[in-house]
Amino acid sequence: MATNSAIAGQATAQEGQISHGNDDAGHVVLAAVDIKNTLVASTTAGARGFKRWAIFLGLLTIIGIVGVGVRLIQDSDDQTNWGYTAAVAAFLLTVGGGAPLVAVAPVLAKANWVRPLTRLSAAFSLMGVVTMLVMIPLILILPPLVTEGARRRSIWFESPDLTPHTFIMLAMGTLLLAGLGLFYTSALPDFAAMRDHSTGWRQSVGKSLARGWVGSTVQWRTLRMRIGMFGTFYFLVLIYVHFLFTSDFAMGVVPGWRDAIFPMYHAMSSIQAGIAVSILTAWAARRYLGLQNYLRLDQFWSLGRLLFATSLLWIYFFFSAFIVFWYGRSLADIAWVDMFIRGPMIWAFIPGMFMSFLVPWWWLIWNRVRTSVNGPAIGAIIVLLGLLLDRIRIYVSAWSVPPEQIHDRFLQTIPETIWPDTFDYMIIVGAIGAAALVMLLVFRVVPIVSIWQMQEYQLLTKPVRYIRGHGVLVAKPD
Questions:
Q1: pLDDT at 466
Q2: How far is 88 from 42, CA to CA, in rounded Å?
Q3: Quick check: helix, strand or coil at residue 232?
Q4: Are 435 and 92 in contact (CB under 8 A)?
């Protein structure tokens, strides 16, 4: 396939030996065959680094498994020691669940800049495997709905005792299947490219997963329809999962906690975290896999603006919930404020609020920061750290309530601060390490940047002069 007519001349790139041309503004215009060869080859880049990281993350995973095993043996009947496990499960759900929305919402809005990011964002749905595994011991420890004839307050009115356990796992399994369907469907053309341009076991994997893909008109039409269906279904199920998770693992274990906004606050912060982790992954791929010609300034600039917007939404949803308890002034409302704001977890609340809202807001408000590659990445790190502290504040506080108080009308005694012990640290680093290991293995098989969407990106864009500056002319075929 010939390159675009705006190419000033053919050349050979220093990185990856890519044939390309530069327009007057310095935009790199790549040929379709170069895109295919380079991105397929990116899965084999850095073999030594991959092995080191795989071993390191594997060791962290083993440490986490040991921590969960010891915790089950020692504290299988004491829910107050499982708060940090619940917090890291919520953190994984928030990050891994929200990232695929970066591959859904802008695509439905026909945003052209998101094409290089759809693969890496959709792949985070596979983190649901680790999230479900971390949730298993929590479900075993979850207090029963009925104890000695008394039913605790929850969303499950007149339901069998194991209803929360069944529905939350069913919802998580559905979310995982929807994410897997979104990821696999959008990767079909790339599996065919691996079948035709790879060797060894990657070619065998591509041949098995391509399922006869040849790129016919009917196949392309079906592909786009399935991406839209899986993306929409994934978003709907994600909101439902956040509703169930927050109801059963947070509000359901704290007497007197009734908050209609909290599930949406939880889901909104998941979108914020998904944007942040997508920025960090794109930054790492650009820096360590040599994908500068694919993950450009446009992607970081656009994601930086979205991260800035979700930081403002964070404080909006938080304050919308907080103001009800602050002005309600009932005994249950006062207990909630004492428990989650100015009580035992104030050490997590203050830095968590600063890093989820105030610091990224102040950092990303500057044009110079947003219109850079490193600026949004720094903001993303701050947001993820703030999110982890926020989940610790919520779930460690909720699970610190003794089971014998769960049937009270409101929380009468505020528990003491629970600090993480050795096994909590083991579980946290093990769970996060296992999630990172899953992502590392996925991108070792499938290119982190979608081949067919980058080829489409090149076909639909053309660098042009605009008044005294330069811009990109984007075609809208449909």
A1: 79
A2: 31
A3: helix
A4: yes
Question: In this structure, are residues 450 and 119 in contact, taking their beta carbons and an 8 Å threshold?
Answer: yes
Q: Measured between alpha carbons, how far is 169 from 173 in angstroms, rounded to an integer?
A: 6
pLDDT confidence band for 3 (50 / 70 / 90): very low
Which residues, at least 6 apart from 452, have a Cβ–Cβ distance to it below 8 Å?
A: 189, 190, 193
Q: What is the enclosing helix (H) or strand (E) of 226?
A: helix 217-249
Tell me how far apart the alpha carbons of residues 81 and 73 are, in angstroms, rounded to a whole number: 12
Query: Alpha carbon of 72 to those of 58, 79, 349, 432: distances in Å?
Result: 21, 11, 28, 19
Look at the block and give the residue holding tokens 């960090």.
Answer: 280
Angle ∠(101,394,334) on CA atoms, nearest 5: 130
Q: What ranges do the domains of the chain cover?
A: 55-146+157-449
Pairing verdict, β 461-466 and 469-474: antiparallel
- H-only helix segments in 99-216: 105-108, 118-123, 128-141, 163-197, 200-210
Report pLDDT for 372: 93
Position with higher pLDDT, 7 vs 301: 301
Q: Burial letters for 116-127: b for 16+ Cβ neighbours within 10 Å, e otherwise?
A: bbbbbbbbbbbb
User: How far is the CA of 215 from the CAs of 191, 212, 331, in angstroms?
Assistant: 12, 9, 64
User: Does residue 367 register a pLDDT over 80?
Assistant: yes
Query: Is it the case that residue 159 has pLDDT exceeding 70?
Result: yes
Specify the amino acid at residue 179: G
pLDDT digits (tens, 9 = 90+) for 425-466: 999 999 999 999 999 999 888 889 988 888 888 888 787 887
Please report which residue ranges of 250-296 form alpha helices under DSSP H. 262-288
**Smallest Cα–Cα separation from 234: which of 110, 114, 120, 128?**
128
The answer to whether the beta carbons of residues 122 and 146 sit under 8 Å apart is: no
Q: Which amino acid is residue 42, in one-letter code?
A: S
Residue type, 39: L
Burial annotation 346-373 (CB, 10 A radius, 16+ → b, else e): eebbebbbbbbbebbbebbeeeebbebb
CA 95/CA 273 separation, integer angstroms: 5
pLDDT digits (tens, 9 = 90+) for 19-33: 344 443 345 556 667
Closest to 436 (Cα-Cα) out of 146, 130, 32: 130
Taking only the tens place, the pLDDT of each residue in 142-154 is 888 887 777 888 8
Q: What are phi and psi of 198, to 5 degrees?
A: -105, 180
Residues 432, 118: Cα–Cα separation, whole Å = 22
Per-residue tokens: 357: 């809202």
Reply yes or no on whether the pLDDT at 123 is more than 60: yes
Buried b (16+ CB within 10 A) or exposed e, 73-85: eeeeeebebbbbb
Q: How far is 235 from 164, CA to CA, in rounded Å?
A: 21
